[in-house]
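Okay, can you check this protein?
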Amino acid sequence: MDVKSAFLNGDLKEEVYVEQPSGFVDPLKPDYVYKLRKALYGLKQAPRAWYETLSTFLIENKFSRGKIDKTLFLRESKGKIILVQIYVDDIIFGSTENNLCKKFAKLMQGKFEMSSMGELKFFLGLQVRQTDDGLSISQSKFTKELIKKYGMESSSTMRTPMGTSMPICKDETGKPVDESLYRGIVGSLLYLTASRPDIMYATCVCARYQACPKESHYTAVKRILRYLKGTPTLGLWYPRNRDFLLTGYSDADFAGCREDRKSTTGTCQFLGGRLISWSSKKQTSVAISTAESEYVAAGSCCAQLLWMQHQLKDYGIQVSRTPLLCDSKSAISIANNPVSHSRTKHIEIKYHFLREHVERGDISLEFVKTDYQIADVFTKPLDETKFNKFKIELGMLTID
């Protein structure tokens, strides 16, 4: 559903005055100003005022606000549940009972001027397709537009988004390229990672060189576009009737960055065996060992898993002792052993919260062989065979 002129519905708590609009000035009181009762577009208070008005209305109608996500509202009725997600003036809702959806739509249309968009098919650039077997998310339309926009229609395709033989570096002696063009491509690719985890690592590496891009960097982003040209309809598939087992994978590429020798953290989280979150990020400090870089990566994954545990509680799903799979036995030993060691004394305190949650039983740090470490695809470029293997395990399929 879409709220028409949403911000105009917001009630203001602050005192805000505006000049009389041109063409509507009172000739008897030209120096007077108006005191606003409702928000106007352009006011800094407008988004907040609209949110307060909408959330108050929903709470008055027996909805409860999410403890983690404050834009999530829920209501249970006789074992049935309806979920409402707010994004500015767009509202997505779903329920286990179709009748509850109809009642909610009627409730909202009775209070605000709304337009119903029907079943969710397109949202913020994401193409959503629902069938009896499951749900798919893709961005094939945006991908094809991107290929056309940057003149890659006649280019040959690539089987992987990044090569393994020539790592990208700062290239201070390289020929500079158009910064606006380069940043535009990188920005579009980052937007595409919302449904394309297969290009996450390559895009994040290219994003590091936006300040002063060179020809080698431009060649790297064009390779990603050539890979996308060959896989425009690839997307994520979520089958029905899966369990709610939460699982995390964490990995690190020790000293992978050639400029500052910092490591890269790669994490991904699965719910019921299907990918729901992923990240690729350079670590903020230099690790002096593989074990340390893996331990830091596991800490990042732990933080995301804990957030998801609390988020699932809002949906009425209780999760306990979430497995976190790591391919470093040394990092697992550091997390499981509370005794301070000379090799770990320098690690920032914020990463040791992983050890605390392992002791409490919130997280179960488990070993996985490197060949089965799915998060590896978010830490470094892989050869075609390994890349395709992990791509399938991420739940990526061709969406018709």
Notes: The chain has a mean pLDDT of 92. Residues 5 and 113 are 8 Å apart (CA to CA). The longest strand covers residues 274-282. The two ends are 26 Å apart (CA to CA).
